[in-house]
Amino acid sequence: MRLLRLTSLLAAALTVCATLAPTTVSAQTITACSADRSGTLYRVGIPGAPADCTKSSHTKATWSTNGSAPDIVVDSTSVSAPAGTQFSGSVTCPTGYTVIGGGFESSGVPTTVGVWTSRPHYYTTYSFWQVRGYNSGANGYSMKIQAICMKRP
Asked: Which domains does the chain carry?
């Protein structure tokens, strides 16, 4: 009887331990292509997406969600758009990364603020995202510039 109780207790303890043990989640591999001139990043090789890059000039990248050092980083900075002036700002990728996308965002900016450039800088090694524009309004505004950077092989 004592052996039966001990066996039942041991079985219950093992069941609890198995239930509380950490679970392993498989890493997901993501494949995408970057249109170098526009900075557009699009997924490939999944249902509903192209099987491969749509142009030979696009750069293909594959990365894993396994928690290792990031192959893709997003960096940002703020830029002022003073009243009645042109403004310019950029975000530089970390060393060893190249820009594959980017843009800008702001809240409450009126139609008096126009952006004519939001792109990777073509004349370098694509190491930063540039935004330029003009604020014709009477008030100054702030904008956030973002760059999506990919680790170079």
From this structure: 27-151 (2.60.120)
